[in-house]
Amino acid sequence: MKLSLFGVAGIPPGKHNVKDPRLDQAHRLVEAKKKVYAQVDVTGEEDAATADALVVSASSRLDAILRDLEFVETRLERNPPEPERTALEKIKASLETEQLASAAALAPAEAAAVGLNVLLTLKPVVVATAAELAAFDEFLVRVLAETGYCCYLTVGGPENRAWLIRKGMTAPEAAGVIHTDLQKGFIRAEVIGFEDFLAAGGETQAKRANKLRLETKTYVVQDFDLVNFRFTK
After folding, report:
1. Are the C-beta atoms of 67 and 10 separated by less than 8 Å?
2. pTM for the full model?
């Protein structure tokens, strides 16, 4: 995931850990040599057009809206064809009331005509407070939740690790985040829900309590599921 800081200073670019306390809980319950947080790529404002989501402050949110409004007005002056014109008119109405472009509720054809990377506020935008920016890696937990991402866990042995995925990914797709071979040879996923894991007091205890489920390739991985993939080599 690529995250652009728009009008936000003081956060160094590069990879940042998503310090979700649920991984800390899992690490206390399952012995492993190390703990590995999920990571996101944090970039500056110059990469906003190619980012998956934006983080803004309360003041820079308006700056992003005004930048989009300027683009929309310029584009409309050039008399674009349908359905782009209709889409831009809807977006302009949202921006003029200080709403994000994403609030325009575009039809699929309209969204395709405009293009997701043309306007900044068609992307997911998360407004950060000063306190959240001061604890940025912890704030990233909220960023993921509000921009269409989540994590699942693999635990035990070499590492307890959180893997970043898009919400809605099936078990084979999630396995592919670890390695494409796991996706190609996917047989099934052994899954323990995170709340069941906590309630039981660990992975072994959850298995003894019959909380482990066998899921097929249609299963949609849920946030912080504990997953072990079975696959053919």
Report:
1. no
2. 0.92
